[in-house]
Amino acid sequence: MKCWVCDAPAHASCRFCGRFVCKDHANGDMPTFIVMYVGANQTPKGLAVAKVVWCGICEPQPEPILMPELY
User: Is the pLDDT of residue 26 over 90?
Assistant: First the structure.
Protein backbone atom coordinates (compact mmCIF):
# COMPACT_ATOMS: atom_id res chain seq x y z
CA MET A 1 0.00 0.00 0.00
CA LYS A 2 1.02 3.60 -0.54
CA CYS A 3 0.67 6.60 1.74
CA TRP A 4 -2.57 8.51 1.19
CA VAL A 5 -0.66 11.82 1.28
CA CYS A 6 2.64 11.31 -0.55
CA ASP A 7 2.54 7.88 -2.29
CA ALA A 8 5.55 6.62 -0.28
CA PRO A 9 5.28 3.07 1.11
CA ALA A 10 2.72 3.02 3.93
CA HIS A 11 3.59 1.71 7.38
CA ALA A 12 0.29 1.97 9.24
CA SER A 13 -3.42 2.62 8.85
CA CYS A 14 -5.44 5.30 10.59
CA ARG A 15 -7.38 3.94 13.57
CA PHE A 16 -10.34 6.17 12.73
CA CYS A 17 -10.80 6.05 8.94
CA GLY A 18 -8.45 3.31 7.69
CA ARG A 19 -6.30 5.46 5.37
CA PHE A 20 -2.77 4.12 4.99
CA VAL A 21 0.05 6.51 5.88
CA CYS A 22 3.85 6.50 5.91
CA LYS A 23 5.94 7.19 9.02
CA ASP A 24 6.24 10.89 8.13
CA HIS A 25 2.46 11.40 7.94
CA ALA A 26 1.38 9.17 10.83
CA ASN A 27 0.34 11.27 13.82
CA GLY A 28 0.34 9.52 17.17
CA ASP A 29 -1.37 11.95 19.47
CA MET A 30 -5.02 10.83 19.43
CA PRO A 31 -6.63 8.59 22.06
CA THR A 32 -9.37 6.06 21.32
CA PHE A 33 -11.46 3.45 23.07
CA ILE A 34 -10.88 -0.20 22.26
CA VAL A 35 -13.90 -1.54 24.08
CA MET A 36 -16.81 -0.27 26.17
CA TYR A 37 -18.72 -2.52 28.56
CA VAL A 38 -20.91 -2.49 31.66
CA GLY A 39 -19.00 -3.50 34.77
CA ALA A 40 -20.00 -4.26 38.35
CA ASN A 41 -22.98 -2.32 39.71
CA GLN A 42 -24.02 -1.48 36.14
CA THR A 43 -21.13 1.01 35.83
CA PRO A 44 -20.07 1.79 32.24
CA LYS A 45 -16.35 1.23 31.72
CA GLY A 46 -14.02 1.64 28.77
CA LEU A 47 -10.54 0.49 27.84
CA ALA A 48 -8.72 3.37 26.15
CA VAL A 49 -5.41 3.57 24.29
CA ALA A 50 -3.40 6.77 23.96
CA LYS A 51 -1.34 7.79 20.93
CA VAL A 52 -2.97 5.64 18.25
CA VAL A 53 -2.10 6.14 14.58
CA TRP A 54 -4.11 9.00 13.08
CA CYS A 55 -3.79 10.16 9.48
CA GLY A 56 -4.35 13.83 10.33
CA ILE A 57 -6.85 14.11 7.48
CA CYS A 58 -10.05 12.65 8.92
CA GLU A 59 -11.94 14.42 11.68
CA PRO A 60 -13.01 12.06 14.48
CA GLN A 61 -16.08 13.55 16.14
CA PRO A 62 -15.67 14.72 19.75
CA GLU A 63 -19.15 13.59 20.76
CA PRO A 64 -21.13 10.42 19.98
CA ILE A 65 -23.62 10.67 17.14
CA LEU A 66 -27.14 9.47 17.97
CA MET A 67 -28.35 6.63 15.77
CA PRO A 68 -31.69 5.49 17.24
CA GLU A 69 -32.69 3.69 14.04
CA LEU A 70 -30.02 1.04 14.70
CA TYR A 71 -31.33 0.09 18.14
Answer: yes
